[in-house]
Amino acid sequence: MRRAFFGHWMIAGCMDMNLPFKGIVAWIGLFVCRTAAALVICGACGHEAAEGQRFCGHCGARVGEKKAPAEAAVEAEAAPPQAAPAGPDVQAVLDAAREDSRTAAEIEETLPEVALCYYRNAAALARLVPAGALPEDSGKRLVEALERCRKRLASTLKPCAVCAGSGRRMVRMQSLAGNADAGLRGAGVPCSACGGSGRVLAARNADELRLLLAQARRNHETRQQASRRVAVGNAWAPVAVAGKLTPRLQALLRTAAAAPCSECQGIGVQVCAACKGQGRVACRQAGCVDGMVERKAANTLNASTALAIRTPCTACAGNAWVVCVACGGGGHVACRSCGGLGQPKKCVKCGGLGTGVCVLCKGVGKDRAGNPCAACAGEGIGLCTTCHGEGCLAK
User: Fold this and answer.
1) How far apart are CA 49 and CA 41, in angstroms?
2) Can you list the residues of the chain whose pLDDT is less than 50?
3) What pLDDT was estimated at residue 194?
4) I need a surface site. Which of 7, 138, 251, 348 has the fewest CB within 10 A?
């Protein structure tokens, strides 16, 4: 080696020189010679490697192997670069969302509560699809379908409170003889509140909705499990898609399918306590009986012989009921818990996003070895530790 040759040359030269420091120079030459003998040159990159070192610290090649620079460049180009984990298959997500929408449309008329669960799941999966991959009106159609299901669930047929479900009004008939005991009650007039059907469209209360939607969620869960789906919060995704979801994508699903308000079950309204959801109450006008008011005729001097005349009540126009003032006839009022939104209050910690700093890598996105974090896939984002990605705090 060059350094070894240079050391030997210095020692030989110093032996011929008659200088006072001949011994010092000889020791220096011996040290350089030993140092050069301990160093090994890498045959791949030309850098020095220490004695006993098996691999080059510069290029990583095995010490002693000779490799042309061109071959090393070709191998470097052929090696695939280390990339971040691939996201979910867009086509698989699209197929799952379309399948849920198609199933919901088939059962919307007969099982609107189960169809609502399917529409919600389709809307949640649509958040994983890029904007250009969906039709422009897909979001509008999903919103319209959700509103249709909510309206069907908000009300149901209940027995009429005016006629007690009989469909007929009780009419009082007075005998011309003036005998009070001869009063008769007839049931030949159809009830004006229900049109003679005995049932009216009334709003469901929170307890009815809670039971109905709990049964619907159980039905929906069984159907999704039979389709080989897995739960991501309250959403359901194919196994292949769920396995590639980062915490950020999981939060998109979880916030879209978050649990609704416990008071109104996501409808946003509550049953009016005054009319019990029917939108009308019995007339409370003084003297009004079955929509008629009785008065005495003033065409006689003797009050006992005066004829009793029955006229329609001016307050209810003879219907025996009036529109509920508390709800304006709608049968329901805005939910006091959520203010009509149908969702609980947003999580204060994440602001409703459902995400926060990754707990494992502290937001850096890499582990100690410099590799992408296994928990957040290098994004530095994790699920919110308070709401667990839901974005809201359900009671």
Assistant:
1) 6
2) 1-21, 25, 30-38, 66-85, 175-186
3) 80
4) 348
The dihedrals phi and psi of 136, each to the nearest 5 degrees, come to -65, -35
**Given phi > 0 = left and psi -120 to 50 = alpha, else beta, which region is 42?**
beta
Domain for residue 195, yes or no? no
Instruction: Say if 44 falls within a structural domain.
Output: yes
Q: Give me the residue label for tokens 């020095």.
A: 48
Domain of residue 24 covers: 2-78
31-74 tens-digit pLDDT: 444 444 445 667 666 666 656 566 665 565 666 654 444 444 44
Among 7, 28, 6, which residue's Cα sits nearest to residue 19? 28
3-state helix, strand, coil in the chain (%, to 5): 35, 20, 50
Q: Quick check: helix, strand or coil at residue 237?
A: strand
Report whether 335 contacts 203 (CB < 8 A).
no
Angle at CA of residue 26, ends 21 and 32, nearest 5°: 130
Tokens of 202: 């009334």
Query: Which pair of tokens denotes residue 201?
Result: 């469209």
Q: Exposure pattern of 57-82 as b/e (b: 16+ CB <10 Å)?
A: eeeebebeeeeeeeeeeeeeeeeeee
Over residues 242-259, the pLDDT tens digits come to 988 999 999 999 998 888
User: 3-class DSSP state for residue 29?
Assistant: helix
| 57 located within any domain | yes
Token reading at 231: 């739960």
Report the 10 Å Cβ neighbour count for 346. 19
Q: Contact 333/372 with Cβ under 8 angstroms? A: no
Inside any domain, residue 129: no
